[in-house]
Amino acid sequence: MRALLVRFCLAFLFIPLFSARADLMYPLAVEDLSTNSQFILHGKVISTTVQRDAARRIYTKIDLQVMESWKGAVATNHFTIVHSGGILGDEVATASGEVAFDVGEEVVAFLVTNKLGEGVCIGMSQGKFHVWADPRTGEKFTHNHFHGLHPDLPNNATTPQTAKIINRLTLSDLKQRVQKASGGAQ
Asked: Contact at 8 Å (CB) between 62 and 82?
């Protein structure tokens, strides 16, 4: 009986080692996102389309109208971004921490390309910054999970949700940090 109790206690102690969380993310600095990106694009989401690839995996394709390229030369003012998951008919495929784009949304995307030349966000959702304008001043700000302040939260928010948020990050400040990390202006 004692041996059984010892095994149970040991098993109980090792449970945290074997239970991994899929949504655990380590923050990537803007500078790390910048140096590891092939493309950094500021643009507006024109459309999103959920499709199935040859291996029957569900993925979402985004058409980004490029307003400005901060890193990397693009041939046209449209760039395709893809990410895993989406809703296709009555099937839903999701991945914790995956990026999401909304039609009409203004974004800055930190991208590498896949073998088809499509953009994939670095660090999943960390590679996309939502751009929003202050309704009072019109000044543009950006945010993702770890950088910038969400537009619905006040500057002095001190909730646990905002503990990981650095502060408001203007679009122009983000661009300057990207250019500095990438070795100068594009």
From this structure: yes
* Rounded (10°) CA dihedral 126, 42, 173, 101: -40
pLDDT (tens digit per residue) in 6-45: 343 334 333 343 334 455 778 899 999 999 999 999 999 9
In contact, 170 and 140? CB cutoff 8 Å: yes
* Residue with tokens 């700000």, as numbered in its chain: 141
Q: What is the pLDDT of residues 83-141, one digit of tens each?
A: 999 999 999 998 888 999 999 999 999 999 999 999 999 999 999 999 999 888 899 99
Question: What share of the chain in percent tops pLDDT 70?
Answer: 76
Whether the Cβ atoms of residue 49 and residue 61 lie closer than 8 Å to each other: yes
SS3 80: strand
* DSSP strand pairing (169-170 vs 58-71): unpaired
CA 72 to chain centre: 19
Q: In degrees rounded to 5, what are phi and psi of residue 10?
A: -65, -45
Query: 99: helix, coil or strand?
Result: coil
| Separation between Cα atoms, residue 84 and residue 101, nearest integer Å | 12
Please name which of 140, 141, 67, 80 lies closest in space to residue 111, comparing C-alpha atoms. 80
